[in-house]
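Exercise 3.2. Students should predict the tertiary structure of the chain below and write it as structure tokens, then compare their answer with the key that follows.

Predict this chain's 3D structure.
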Amino acid sequence: MFPSSNGKPDDRVPVKVAVIPCAGWGTRMLPLTRVVPKELLPLGPKPLIEHTLAELGEAGFELAVIVLRTGKEIIKRHLLEPYPFPERAHSPSPIPNGLKLEFVEQDDPRGLADALKMALPMLDGRPFLMILPDQLLMGSPGATAQLVRHYCGQDSLTSIVNVPKEEAEHFVGSRGVVVEGDGPCYKLKDLLGETGVPGLSDGRYTVRAFGRSIFKPDFLESIEDQSDESEFSLAFTKYCSQGRHDCLLLNGRPIDVGTRVSYQYFWKQWESILTGTL
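Answer key:
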């Protein structure tokens, strides 16, 4: 049972569609991404994109819309083409049972918000999850499962996480938030700049926004074409000026591998993170 907009339980809205933006240039991970897309870099036993799809499968999602650009077709090939020697692959299908994939192309990577908008025709008026492959949450249930269980029709529901202060430097670009109310689900008041001091932080942790958010399609419809709103934070700040917008503090160990330094750091720590010793 989870609280709803009218304070009663079981007033949840099903979320079964995800949008996965994969059209970026991966400049923060050069030279690793000079040839191989960031989403296909391995973390532990499988590429980042497969961790993302597994998380959606755990949460019972039906459709994942993957946004690509010219030059990153290899992601589609990896996910859809069968192995040439399946007896040697020793690997299950990268696509969970029950999850359908669709691919759309962003002709010119103008920003995250613009990438998300490419998926608008496939949403059919349904709320959707934005999920960033370079951020992961270790633990059970996964980040997506936690988020959808607390979604009850808000205009947006943003995930936030406790980041150990000694690892804050590895969460480059993750914004702090201003919230009010009692957790774990808070009312979102403002999105801070990258140098803002996040609310809810204490001596051990800094609380940051995480790469999982649920939106209504209205968010994408509100983004003006060829505008500065192609940059996600500008579009989201405008969208948050009206309606109901909440934040959910997730349980679990967050990982951000969006930069080369952070990728190498968490790769080295992977086994310790899995065993809970770090």
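Discussion points: Residues 64 and 101 are 5 Å apart (CA to CA). Helices lie at 48-58, 73-80, 86-89, 112-117, 143-149, 218-221, 232-239, 260-275.
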